[in-house]
Amino acid sequence: MKKLLLSLILAIGMLSTPSFSHEHHAIQNVHKKDKIVYITRTGAKYHESSCRYLRQSKIQTTKKEAISNGYDACKVCKP
Ligand SMILES: [Zn+2]
Fold first, then answer.
1. What is the pLDDT of residue 1?
2. Separation of alpha carbons 33 and 42, rounded Å
3. Range of 25's domain?
4. So what's the pLDDT on residue 30?
5. Are 41 and 74 members of one domain?
6. How many domains does the chain have?
């Protein structure tokens, strides 16, 4: 039983790991059609992961989602 509980905890831990806590750039293989981009709490642009405008806040979304929410492409990082 102990082993089952442990694997359950591991599974939950993996699901709830917040991606924004990772400072280094994780290389993501995007298999889906939608490109992963990032928006900020206050801005009206969407950005590449490495963009300097993401220092304040970084909210992961998809390009499609960002566009449908009225966001425009950042002119600095050109996502
Ligand atoms: Zn940008």
1. 63
2. 27
3. 1-33
4. 47
5. yes
6. 2
What is the 46 CA–ligand 1 centroid distance (Å)?
6
Q: Could you tell me the distance, in angstroms and rounded to a whole number, from the CA of residue 7 to the centre of ligand 1?
A: 39
**Tens of each residue's pLDDT in the chain, 79 residues:** 677 777 776 776 777 656 555 555 555 554 557 899 999 999 999 999 999 999 989 999 999 999 999 999 999 999 9
Based on the fold, state whether residues 60 and 75 are members of the same structural domain. Answer: yes
pTM higher than 0.85, yes or no? no
Do 48 and 12 lie in one domain? The reply is no
CA of 47 to the centre of ligand 1 (A): 4
User: Same domain, yes or no, for 29 and 41?
Assistant: no
CA of 12 to the centre of ligand 1 (A): 32
Residues 70 and 41 both lie in one domain: yes
Place of tokens 């009206």: 44
Ligand 1 centre from 2 Cα, in Å?
Answer: 47
Rounded to the nearest angstrom, the distance between the alpha carbon of 49 and the centre of ligand 1 is 8
